[in-house]
Amino acid sequence: MCTVCGCGDGEVKVHGHKHHSHDHSHTHSHSHDDGLHFGDGAAGVSVPGYSQERLIKIETDILAKNDRYAELNRAKLAAQEVFAVNLVSSPGSGKTTLLCKTIEALGGQPLAVIEGDQQTQNDADRIRATGAPAIQVNTGKGCHLDGHMVGHAIEHLTLSHGSLLFIENVGNLVCPASFDLGEDCKVAILSVTEGEDKPLKYPDMFTAARLAILNKIDLAPHCDVDLDLYTANLRRVNPTIEILNLSARTGEGMSEWITWLRTNLAQKQLQGAAE
Predict the structure, then answer these.
(1) Residue 2 maps to a domain
(2) How many structural domains are present in the chain?
């Protein structure tokens, strides 16, 4: 049960790489209080029979349990010096296309992908077509991945030392901001067609992100888009956020993105060697 928007539980299914017999499904819930659905306590949502303090405590307990799963994931990835990126965006930003182009540009770099969607294996199939291993996590009615789901998916992956792990979250700019998956950082992807005020409407996500990618800049001349305003609004909610402008379709700006990934992976490996 999502503590942010109150979305319902469904059967979570983890589908392994089609070349292995790892297909698995399980019922998963991160609600622990009589199936209670509620929104953000700070927003003043009320549920009959529950005080505001009680709602906040329940939400805190759920997030604390998620954080314990996330720390287990983080420790496992650190031991293998794997740099993990949590890709977050609204639907239609171009996450999967960007990811496919990224895999192609990285060449022989060891990597793997965890795909999050409510239904279908369409995106995982697209990733596998590039030759990269991918695990599909279908969240049912859930609107985001959590630490438990990602930990379960990692068990189905063979991650070599010094790999990149891409976690493509469910398309949603609200709930994924609250759930740590054990990743090294969140990368928020925007397309130029979404509106320059998107960072102001969803500040939690862009505050939580280390990097913002403004995608589909090849469309900017046709959409009356102010790229400088996008940047200004991102800096307004997160003064330290890094920003890259690119087009996954044309390849413009892709080299900077690949450099960013390689640099951060190298830093993770140096950190591991020093510990």
Answers:
(1) no
(2) 1
